[in-house]
């Protein structure tokens, strides 16, 4: 895991000291923005519909606070306004009693759980946050970006986090990283073929990173092993010298079949909903009938498939 400081007029991240110009991230034209905000069918079917169907069971399993996130929230100044993009069941909302929290998530049932618990939360998309610019003091995106199926949408979600946080504020991002993941667990996931991805996302859709020329600066952290990669971002002005500048071509990268076979990043990750759960008689029955889920009598569960893009080393920073 890594801490990353992002400045204004710069944004940041990398294993080496580098720096990114914010203008390179924020100058999207309207046509490009609309295209990015269009939700691919694979996300509608294997993210949105799945989490709507499993929301109560999913929520019952989401209560432990990740130490990295807890430490970040505890470090915020009193009175800070924290925006949680992809808040799920709201387990981090209100974590620091000295701060104010607003959460949003694409899943209406999960937002319903948040509001039942007394949290301020609303239904919204991570690539189109419903806040004015420089609105919050800090923002978090915990295990959200890997559910976005194209590089441009993941990039847009990061831009939105930066946009809604004031100058000098902080952003914390965590994602699943393939190098840190248990290979035994990965073997139980279903890798997606290019043909499948082209059918669901669209041929030629950039699923691999293809950003403009980026300058990044990273702040090394203690060697902490875990399944996730994190990125801590600050919009304060930086006067430090750059040790390295990374230049990346502006052209769109095409998917290479051989490369994908060796470096698989797109998966279906199973979610087992036990037969005894009340949801089995509702949305899950329809999901099985429609082919969105299947029954596994040996495990006594309905099995859903969730779309994941598992990040490679350094991909989040770039």
From TrEMBL:
Residues 220-230 have a biased composition (Basic and acidic residues). GO terms for molecular function: S-adenosylmethionine-dependent methyltransferase activity; tRNA (5-carboxymethyluridine(34)-5-O)-methyltransferase activity; tRNA binding. Residues 83-173 form the Methyltransferase type domain. InterPro entries: AlkB_tRNA_MeTrf/Diox, Methyltransf_11, SAM-dependent_MTases_sf. GO terms for biological process: tRNA methylation; tRNA wobble uridine modification. Keywords: Methyltransferase, Transferase. GO terms for cellular component: cytoplasm; nucleus. It comes from the Eukaryota. Residues 208-230 are annotated as: Disordered. Transmembrane segments: none annotated. The keyword Nucleotide-binding does not apply. PANTHER family: ALKYLATED DNA REPAIR PROTEIN ALKB HOMOLOG 8. This is Methyltransferase type 11 domain-containing protein.
